[in-house]
Every structure is written in structure tokens, then in C-alpha cells.
TrEMBL record:
This is Putative alpha/beta-fold hydrolase. GO terms for molecular function: monoacylglycerol lipase activity; short-chain carboxylesterase activity. Residues 84-292 form the AB hydrolase-1 domain. Belongs to the AB hydrolase superfamily. AB hydrolase 4 family. The active site is at residues 161, 285, 314. Keywords: Hydrolase. Transmembrane segments: none annotated.
Length: 342
């Protein structure tokens, strides 16, 4: 498909890559979301925590004459449409960007399922293994569990940052064998070229240091799952790459960081996607390279739609509106509803 003509034109400070990345991540407020948690068991003895936000919960309640009794209007039916949303690196279902997506889908009558990667739901997992950038097996477990309910006729997969890479990798691995209920894919600020993303951040750049600090804190919170000698090594690591090279890659059966970036990247799989897929990356994203936008693939694909505005930062795309939704939220819904003009 041709590259999508962007209509994102922020003003003033929102053109700044760092402000448009950091402000939405730290100060954005999304209200009105109520989750119901469900835990599923995994093949390896571990678990994932899923947070559900049902579309009907956003419909005003109607009180009956009975004290405290509440019913829904007669014309309200359970949704047959579901968005499965995957968060970014060391995030969870409460991150502002993800809540914005949940709210946007609920507003059009869709249920939303935000799943928490291993160890990030507020409780440590049973196993040392984590959900890595290539963790499409964990996403597949969530999808299969959802399909087993037999409720949803229409499913959209949405991913942000690391979650976008996982989502796009899953869709490419499945190709034409993807479950028929899955109709569309959305990836926002996706590091499809992981090595390119690492290079864009720089080995000791601000964001690499920020991610390293978050990772070290995460690992310290699960010290009882980690070999004591290995745990002592963490304090010696100077760069984020050191953790990937010496701990995360070997823990998941890969030789080193180079092999991790190669095996976990979605880029080689994106050309094999066989359902409509929307990729929204920003040119001024401080942690992604241009190669992550998959522009060359989009030009030659019948399924890949790539929008690459000049601004937006990383999982930012700020926009001011009464609903509290950002450009990425609205653009995603426009794609799902077939309203994006190519």
C-alpha cells in the first residue's frame, strides 16, 4: 500500500521529540477505565494477568425502583468486538498510552483486553523467564485463551513500542494462518528493527540510561528468582546492552545481544503479514530508527499501511481534545473503522 499521508501537525513545544515523549509518559491522565482482572496459566507453569475493560461499563447506568439495583438499557448487548492491547518495555496495563487506546475502543462499543507481560502485573511471576521483545508465544497464549471463550467475532491486535514489535512479529509468523477472528493489526512506535532502535538510542544516551535504570529496578524486585552470583553482576553492568548480552539473551536461549536483536525483531516477519496492518511511527522518535517504520515494505505490500509523521516522539502523538484522546488513539480507530484515506 502507498505510504499514508499524515495529518498530524502539532504546534509549539509538541514538536520537540523529548517533550512529546516524556510528557505523555509521565503526566498524561486517562480517566474512566475500570479493569476486571483474569489470570491464565501458561504451558511452562507460569501465568499472565489480563485486565479487561468492557464497553458496556462505559454506558450510563439506569437505576430501578429497587434499592441499589442497577440495570443496563434493554438495547445494550454484549460486544462481539475486542481489542487486545500489548504494552511497551517494562510497562503494564495502566500506562497512559495504553489506557488511551482502551478508552478509544470502549467509546466505539468494543471490549478491550490489556495483558501484562510476565512479572509486570504487580506480582512477581513463578519463573525467571520474562516476556521478551520477541515474545509472540505469550501473546498467542492470550489470543488462544480469548478465542476459547467463543464470544468475539472481530478482534484487533494493538501494540505499543515493545508490544507493537511482539504484535507485528506474531502476525507475520502466522501469515495466512492467523485466526480468522483477527481482522486488523495496529503497531504504534514499533521498534521492528531492534538493532536500529538500539543504535538510535545510543549506547549511553538518555533513553538507554533510563531503560537501564527501569530494568535494574525490575530485576531487583525479583531477586529471589535470580541466581545470586548473576544478581551480583548486575551492578557492574554499565550499559543496557550489557544486560541483554550477558543475562536476558542467555536466559532465553540466545547467545548474545546481537542474536537477541536478530531473533526478536519483527522486521523480517512483517512482509509475511496477510491482514490489514497499520504502523504509526514518528520521524523524531528518539528511540527508533527510520528502518523501524517499514516504509519500503509498505510500498510493496497489499497489507501494510505505514504513517510516518515528522513529529510525535515515542508513544506520544499529543492532541488536545475534550475526550482526552491523542492523535494515535484516534488514528487507530479511524484505521479500524476503515476511515483512513490512502
Amino acid at each position: 500500500m502507498p505510504i499514508i499521508q499524515t495529518c498530524y501537525k502539532p504546534s509549539h513545544i509538541w514538536k520537540d521529540a523529548h517533550f512529546s515523549t516524556i510528557y505523555p509518559s509521565t503526566l498524561r491522565k486517562v480517566t474512566g477505565i475500570q479493569y476486571k482482572r483474569e489470570r491464565i496459566e501458561l504451558w511452562d507453569g507460569d501465568f499472565l494477568d489480563l485486565d479487561w475493560s468492557m464497553a458496556k461499563s462505559s454506558i450510563p447506568n439506569v437505576k430501578t425502583k429497587k434499592k441499589k439495583a442497577i440495570v443496563l438499557p434493554e438495547n445494550v448487548q454484549p460486544s462481539k468486538s475486542l481489542a487486545i492491547l500489548s504494552h511497551g518495555f517494562l510497562g503494564n496495563s495502566t500506562r497512559p498510552y495504553l489506557l488511551g487506546g482502551v478508552k478509544a475502543f470502549n467509546a466505539i462499543g468494543w471490549d478491550a483486553l490489556a495483558w501484562n507481560h510476565r512479572g509486570l502485573s504487580g506480582e512477581n511471576n513463578r519463573l525467571e523467564r520474562i516476556t521478551i521483545h520477541g515474545g509472540s508465544d505469550d501473546l498467542e497464549a492470550v489470543i488462544n485463551h480469548t478465542l476459547s471463550k467463543g464470544i468475539y467475532e472481530e478482534i484487533v491486535l494493538v501494540g505499543y513500542s515493545k508490544g507493537a514489535n511482539i504484535t507485528l512479529k506474531y502476525a507475520g509468523e502466522k501469515g495466512s494462518e492467523i485466526p480468522k477472528e483477527i481482522k486488523k493489526i495496529v503497531g504504534i512506535s514499533s521498534p521492528t528493527d531492534l538493532q536500529g532502535s538500539v543504535d538510535a538510542m545510543g549506547k549511553s544516551g538518555f533513553y538507554a540510561e533510563r531503560f537501564k535504570g527501569k530494568l535494574l529496578k525490575f530485576l531487583k524486585n525479583r531477586w529471589e528468582l535470580i541466581d545470586n552470583q548473576m544478581f551480583k553482576e548486575f551492578e557492574k553492568y554499565k550499559f543496557l546492552d550489557d544486560f541483554t548480552n550477558n543475562y536476558i539473551a542467555p536466559l532465553h536461549g540466545m547467545k548474545d545481544a546481537e542474536e537477541y536483536y536478530e531473533q526478536c525483531a519483527a522486521a523480517p516477519h512483517v512482509p509475511k503479514i496477510r491482514i490489514p496492518t497499520f504502523i504509526l511511527n514518528a520521524k523524531n522518535d528518539p528511540v527508533l530508527s527510520e528502518s523501524c517504520a517499514m516504509l519500503d515494505v509498505a510500498k510493496d505490500s497489499d497489507y501494510i499501511f505505514s504513517e510516518y509523521p515528522n513529529y510525535g516522539g515515542h508513544c506520544g502523538f499529543y492532541a488536545s481534545n475534550p475526550e482526552g484522546l491523542y492523535y494515535g488513539d484516534k488514528r487507530m480507530i479511524e484505521f479500524v473503522e476503515g476511515k483512513i484515506v490512502v
